[in-house]
Amino acid sequence: MNTLRKNWLRILTHVGAVTPLAWLLWDYWFDNLTVNPIQDITFRTGKPALILLVLSLACTPVNTLFGFKQALPLRKPLGLYAFMYVSLHFLIFIGLDYGFDWGLLYEAIFEKRYALVGFAAFLILLPLAVTSTQGWMRRLGKNWKRLHRWVYLAGILAVIHYVWLVKSDIREPLLYGAAVALLLILRLPAVRKAVTNFRSRFKKGRRTRTVVDSI
Ligand code: HEM
Question: Taken in order 112, 116, 117, 119, is the CA torsion positive or negative?
Fold first, then answer.
């Protein structure tokens, strides 16, 4: 019971991250995919990829805003799961959709601007996933943090990918865009400092009030 209480957030993260894939495999196995199965599985790998990427970007601001340190260790598993879904998403595109026809793929990626920015996001996430180990953190030292800041650009490109691929209603992609923009603004040193100062003032105020009330 104690383990569950200590690790509930980590367990929830793993269960939540694998559920879309398990559900997709279930639907594939029981033939529940839509009439356009390739588009269905492309969507059902793309969406979790974007959600997990946004959640991994949310961990640091959640700690800045609420002092919720338990969110920090989730950046890595969330980032790696996002990369897992992006890799599946890309494999579906190059393998199932284009049958590994490199000529056609070259045309598709460089002609469809949404595929090009999606590919750029993938090329950024690849070295971040490879260097997510303790060994690479030690090897790269200060450069590790510099390298992993590229995830910000990957987040922006993933949103642009989504905005450019939807035919008509761009409200949902714009919502993801607003979320990514907010999470990046909260990282700006001046904003971060202001939020931290506000939080400590708020805490001090509450403590004073408690002391006054107890007199
Ligand atoms: C590796 C290069 C990528 C390629 C070639 C690619 C290709 C595609 C294609 C073909 C679609 C479906 C378009 C349609 O049928 O209308 C799609 C949808 C999508 N992709 Fe990608 N994608 C790539 C990378 C990414 C990345 C890195 C992310 C996010 C991290 C992502 C997230 C999405 C999302 C959210 C959708 C829409 C899902 C929905 O509407 O439910 N893709 N992508």
Answer: positive
**What six digits make up the tokens of 91?**
């494999």
Residue spans of alpha helices (H) in the chain: 2-29, 37-66, 75-91, 102-111, 113-130, 134-140, 142-148, 151-165, 171-185, 189-214
pTM of the model: 0.92
CB-CB neighbours of 16 under 10 Å: 15
SS3 category, 108: helix
Pocket probe mutation, ligand 1, options 42, 81, 85, max atoms within 8 Å of Cβ: 42
Mean pLDDT value across the chain: 93
Q: Can you read off the two tokens belonging to residue 116? A: 């090009």
Mean pLDDT of 171-180: 97
Does the Cβ of 173 fall within 6 Å of ligand 1?
A: no
Q: Is the pLDDT of residue 28 over 90?
A: yes
**Residue of minimum CA distance from atom 39 in ligand 1:** 43
